[in-house]
User: Fold this.
Amino acid sequence: MNSIKKKLLFILPMASVAILILFTSSCSNDLDVLFPEWENTPATIPLNSDQMTRMEGIYSVQAGSDQFGSSVILQWNGDYLTVYTGKNTGYFLMQGGKLISDPTIYVQGLWRYQNNAETGLSQFSMTEGTDYVLNGTDSSSIVLTGTWGDGQGTPSNSVVFKYVRPIKPSLLQNKFYIISHHGSGGGPEYLPHTENTNEICKIIERYGCNGIELDVRISKDGVPFMYHDNTLNPRLIRKGSLVGTVESYTYKELQSFVVLKNGERIPTLDAILTTIVNETQLEFVYVDCKPSAINGLPAIAEVCQEARDLAESIPNRAPIHIYMAMTTDDLVAAFQLLPNFRDIPTICELTIDDLNTLNSDVWSPRFTEGTQNSEVEQLHSQGKQAITWTVNVPGLMFQYLNEGIFDGMLTDYPTLLAYYYYGQ
Amino acid sequence: MKKTILLLVSFLFIYNITYSQNKDSLYSLTAYVGAGYVYNVTSFDYEYASLNRGGWNANLRIMWKPEFLLSGGIEFGYTGVYSIDEGSVQTDSGTTSIKTTSYAYPLMIVFSMSPKENWEVNFGTGVAFSVVKNEAFGSDAFSSNASSTAMISTAYYIPVMKNSVLGLELRGTYLPKYDDYLISLGASFAYKFFEY
Assistant:
């Protein structure tokens, strides 16, 4: 009896502690990811668009392939040089240009594995091909020689990229949408800003995206605002005074008393679309209407139309498609009550019949439904598009790009999708 | 799923090693009624000057005590989580008063053992119905949600009359969905109301 008692004395507290730990760990998604920054940045002259284009392409990894795989793809996104690597969903984000002090091209920034917390500083100098990139005069090979490091430490590990070929022009000309899921800030990929915020929209193009998916809900007082989950919870917000169902509160309460994970405030749909139109060149906005949006479809439609009008009024703004995504039968039914609903640009996540009823421009089936090439071909013949959500498995990205004919994909890992797409 | 499996394995393991004990022992049902002071020890990312971490809690627990060392039962309770009452708060949307009250109703399966005479250790897990009431900007909001919860407690009892004991219980409660950690200290009265 005593030995059993002793065993239980040990087992019960241990089981309790184990279960408490399980509760705690399963509800936390904190990776504690560092975003290292250089303390000193040498003065550079930004490259022009021709110079950037000459630098873009597929490179072989001459040194550092254990860390970054055997080939990488370089692409300029605005003033950021993004290197898509095929290993561990890795990427580099760098800035730079022609050094003022030296006739060479220099870039510096960070590298990261998107599926874990590994990151560090990195830098590259162009050791071959500078004349070609700057002036287009010499078509010899381009070689970028650099270093990568761990965390905030000085990078000292060697990495060398050697130009192999350009990205196929057809891939750049054919519009394929790389759409960041929720803005991709809050999931395992851990970007510096929280999902569904103005701040994430401003930086998401650096990760290879030309589209963004956002989640809209309706507040207690009828304001369309951006938030994915049903509840205010630690995945998305800092510990504060409000908890519970997000739609229980007025927008003023949400905006005033809720601080998102990275310090941002919950934006309205109006604010986030204005940011996208004014401060990005994103071309595809997928406004995912969450179930509570059923109470505010006219307001959402109106805000989306105002954003389209704003985009048209801006000279040289890339064409932008802003779609309301219909995700449930109830939403489809409510949407049909709107006057002229067939003229409102929509995405339909349901059946082709629903798509035809709504006259949706885009069909968006779940990735588990497969490539569905015959359906997509039929939609293409009607001038419509098809994208699939949410593709995060590398093998499936590769398969859908090679075997499917989708016009885009939603993903939490846009740099990986860009690697597979531009590497074709 | 992992939580369920771990719970089940722990229970079965303990059940197996305690089974086949003294067949002459009595089975009984005991009711516990407790109440006390609860304090929220969570680290808030931003705090109001008037954040009140203290409150009160109460619970009713019915335990089936078999011949084994481990007993099991269910518990229902109330616990304050925090409250805020501030006359003037400056926000991006203007100045407002704010009155927030957060509390929860935990409903748990509880396992208990008595490692020493008069001393009990309890572990419970289940669901908590969390509620927040908020008044700000002239609007009243009420939000409630169910989420998981877990508690661990220890209590010391002294007999006060036939079939009843009175004691002091120290308890830790966790509401993972909202990241609230609560510690409470209170009185507990237990009455064995059925034996067979």
About this structure: Chain A has a mean pLDDT of 91. Residues 44-167 of chain A form a domain with the Lipocalin fold (CATH 2.40.128).
